Amino acid sequence: MPSLLSHVSAFEYWRLVGTPGFSAPEPCRANAPRNFDANDFEWFSGMGLLSYPLHGLTSTKHKNKDAITMRHLACPSLPHGSICAISAQRLIASPELTLLQIAPLLSFAELVGIMCEFCGLFTIVGSDNTLVKRTPLTSVSKISSFCERAKGLHGSSDCATAAQYALDRSRSPMETAAALIFTLPYYRGGYCLRGAELNRRIALSAPVRKIAGVDTLEPDIFWRNHRTCLEYDSDAFHGDDSRIANDARRKNALISSKIGVVTLTTAQLRSIRETQKIAHQLALLMGGRIRIPNEDIFAMRHKLIRHDLLDGSSVLKSQYALSQRAGQVIESPIANVGWGDE
Question: What is the edge-to-edge ordering of all strands in the sheet holding 83-85?
Answer without folding.
Answer: 26-27, 83-85, 90-93, 3-5, 54-58, 69-73
